[in-house]
Amino acid sequence: DPDKLPPRSPELTQAVLNYLFVICEVHYLAYHKYIEDSIWQAWRSDLTRTLCCPLITREWSDLKPQFEYFGPFAEFIEEIQQAIEPGV
Fold it and tell me: CA dihedral defined by 40, 43, 49, 54, rounded to 10 degrees?
């Protein structure tokens, strides 16, 4: 529920950043074909749910610059978040 998000805090932002760094590393491996596509597709479906949750979308707007070094990852997140209708 977007109305019940915890307030912003440095600790919360850091926790989301840590989560995104892990996803970025796996995305990097998949992007460079170090992970089988079937494995990546299975994980991607789970990631889609979490990356579209209101907490992650709220924090992403501030954290996106941290991922400029790997543009395909930022594009991946943007694509997923834009594909989901707001409020769903």
Answer: -80
Any residues with CB less than 8 A from the CB of 18 and at least 6 apart, and which? none
Rounded Cα distance, 69 and 14, in Å: 18
Amino acid identity, position 27: H
Rounded Cα distance between 67 and 17, Å, is 10
Can you say whether the dihedral through the CA atoms of 50, 44, 39, 20 is positive or negative?
negative
Which positions ≥6 away from 46 have C-beta within 8 Å? none
Do residues 81 and 51 make contact, with C-beta atoms less than 8 angstroms apart? yes
pTM summary value: 0.85
Neighbouring C-alpha atoms within 13 Å toward the C-beta of 15: 8
* Residue whose entry in the numeric block shows the structure tokens 């990097």: 28
pLDDT grade for 3, boundaries at 50, 70 and 90: confident
